[in-house]
Amino acid sequence: MFARGLSVATSICAALAEGGQALRDGDICVIAQKIVSKSEGRTVELAATVPGRDAQDLAARTGRDPAMAQAILNESAEILRPHPAAIIARHHTGHVLANAGIDASNVEGGDTGVVLLWPVDPDASARAIRAQLNAATGSRVAVIIADSMGRAWRIGTIGTAIGCAGLTVLEDRRGKAVDLYGRTLQATVIAIADSIAAMAVLAMGEGDEGTPVALVRGAMRWTCDEDGPGAASGLRAMEQDMFR
After folding, report:
1. What gap in Å lies between CA 102 and CA 72, rounded to an integer?
2. Three-state DSSP class for 137?
3. Residue ranges per domain, the chain?
4. Under CATH, to which class is 43-117 assigned?
């Protein structure tokens, strides 16, 4: 079990060694958000959370526990859509998602009011883990911190990069590639980090599989020596938000 202060990088190296594997240049480690949050001590006991007036109002509008509503408000820059099914919030990091990413699944004490928050800065967490992995192995690897998120136009969740280091986040093909008929692409921007995160989360599972890290190989073309701009660079600017 991951606990506060436990090194994610050291645990990854130990698991690889136990399986007779080692990191190579160009590898991508996709890490479940929960183990990063647990290692950073991002658990909250709702019983110790005192809801304010805004939280009481949000709870009344959505049928939520007032303490949970307060936790969501604490993690949010803005509440976009309060609804009984989910409170759609803009997290302090800029990501828009349900309930500000707060979750009780796969959390010890989750059935008694313990919930887990996102890392304060998932991109910074990814950079730190990458630096530790590179130092420990001498290899140049990339790191993605992934969580399952819904999509505005689709049903269901999909693995999404919330933190990233050493990897191209977006590949802009506009004006640089053509289709099968020679037409220059005008609108194609490929979400590289999200695509890799989705594939990895599908392999890791989201229930009791107990597989919090996936090693992705064969994607070296998208890795880079620098940490890069992080997953935040893949967020749509607020002025381009078509749902506001």
Report:
1. 7
2. helix
3. 1-39+119-234, 43-117
4. alpha beta
